[in-house]
Design a protein that fits this description.
alpha+beta
Length: 392
């Protein structure tokens, strides 16, 4: 049994006791996927007991080494997830119940069972959604409209619930916001250096005729101050979660007439701009063909879903976040989408065997994902779009 499996067993003992399971037989298996898990080692668990249904669980154990934690304050991300499942999920569930949101329209959290907060041993145990038929999307394939519209609808609900939290309990919201500052707060310089390491890769991937424009764009937009401005809210902050929008962190299930989706990763939840979440999804999930057909439609769909869910929560989007302000913020933040394409796309699209690691003695200076042809294709399509949109 590996050290991390022993850690899982320790936290699992809490679950077994809470659930009152007698004579439990436990099966723990490493979760093998085609995704890249930079911050956690994943396991699926089956707990068997005579006369009872099997309990199907999912566990994640921290795998970020000490040097990366020091350079990037990465230890904070595990506390964020405990904050979500231990506190925020209960607040949001209560708000939805008080607002009489129908069960099939609620923003749903994966069922939480237990967590451990030991240093270098942070652990989270949740229900195993795969046992209920949920799956992840192929990260090497651009999203379909059906998938994208379902994901963006859930994102809009998450943001609307943040507004409702602030309206109903301003003091509680402010306290939560203080506990959910950007996870890299205080490490901006190191995070920016990580971004700068990717600029050369982005320039190499760009079509020759666009490289000078892209180089000028990087000079103009990629200062530490501008880079971090995009993570901060220009108006009211929301609790946002850009990493949760990655394919591997958003599980879906085809329910015939619609796609049901549940976000399962909240390690990057922090106070910030809702626009950045929207741009991050578009950056990491869509290609040029999708954007030509659906970009404006997706933007409109987000705001309509946001306004509709606010209304269900008894709030008015015209007072809290008018459509005109939303479009102004989107226009101002649009350059950030291309910066994120340079930084995030290589990490999202890298083959698992070429992925860098945050584990053990890994150093931030060596954290550069090896680009592949899918990254080059998508990044060139982003450049074409940003030229057409007049951003570069």
């Amino acid at each position: 049994m590996s050290d991390r499996e022993k850690i899982v067993n320790e936290t699992l003992a809490i679950v077994i006791e809470r659930e009152g399971i007698k004579d439990a037989e436990v099966i723990i298996r490493p979760l093998v996927t085609d995704t890249v898990n930079y911050t956690s080692t994943l396991y699926v668990i089956t707990v068997k007991s005579l006369g009872s249904e099997d309990l199907e669980l999912f566990a994640k154990v921290a795998c970020v080494g000490e040097e990366i934690r020091r350079d990037m304050a990465f230890g904070e991300i595990y506390g964020r997830e405990r904050l979500v499942y231990g506190e925020i999920s209960k607040i949001y569930d209560r708000i939805q119940s008080q607002s009489d949101i129908a069960e099939n329209e609620k923003f749903v959290f994966s069922k939480f069972y237990a967590s451990g907060d030991g240093y270098l041993q942070e652990t989270l145990i949740l229900e195993n959604l795969a046992a209920r038929g949920y799956t992840t999307y192929n990260r090497f394939v651009s999203v379909t409209w059906e998938y994208a519209s379902a994901a963006i609808r859930e994102l809009a609900k998450l943001h609307a619930l943040s507004y409702a939290f602030a309206e109903r309990d301003p003091e509680g919201f402010d306290r939560t916001m203080k506990n959910a500052m950007h996870p890299f707060d205080g490490c901006e310089g190191n995070m920016f250096q990580l971004y700068k390491n990717t600029e050369a890769i982005a320039l190499e991937a760009a079509p020759h005729e666009s490289r000078e424009k892209l180089r000028d764009f990087f000079v103009r937009e990629s200062s530490v101050e501008k880079f971090y401005k995009n993570f901060m809210p220009s108006r009211r902050p929301v609790l946002r979660n850009y990493e949760g929008l990655l394919y591997s962190n958003f599980m879906h299930k085809d329910k015939g007439w619609k796609i049901g989706k549940i976000m399962v990763d909240y390690q990057t939840l922090h106070s910030g701009s809702a626009i950045t979440d929207l741009l991050f999804f578009i950056t990491c999930g869509t290609d040029g063909a999708f954007r030509r057909r659906h970009y404006k439609q997706l933007i409109d769909h987000y705001y309509e879903a946001f306004a509709d869910f606010l209304k269900k929560l008894g709030l008015d989007s015209n007072k809290l976040y008018p459509k005109e302000e939303f479009h102004d913020d989107l226009k101002e933040s649009l350059p950030f989408g291309l910066l994120m394409a340079a930084l995030a796309l290589p990490m999202v699209l890298v083959e698992a065997n070429n992925a860098p690691t945050f584990q053990a003695d890994a150093k931030l200076s060596n954290f550069v994902a090896k680009p592949n042809e899918e990254f080059r294709r998508r990044f060139r399509e982003f450049i074409d779009d940003y030229v057409e949109w007049g951003v570069i």
